[in-house]
Amino acid sequence: MVVFGAAQEIDKLEWHAMRRTSLTVALIVDLSVPAFGGYIGSYADWRDLSAEQKSGYMMGAYDLGLNTMIENDLYSEANMRGISSCTQQSKLNSGMLVRLVETYYAQNPDSWTLPPSQVLTTGLFAMCKTYINNFRRAKGLDLLK
Question: What pTM did the predictor assign?
Answer without folding.
Answer: 0.70
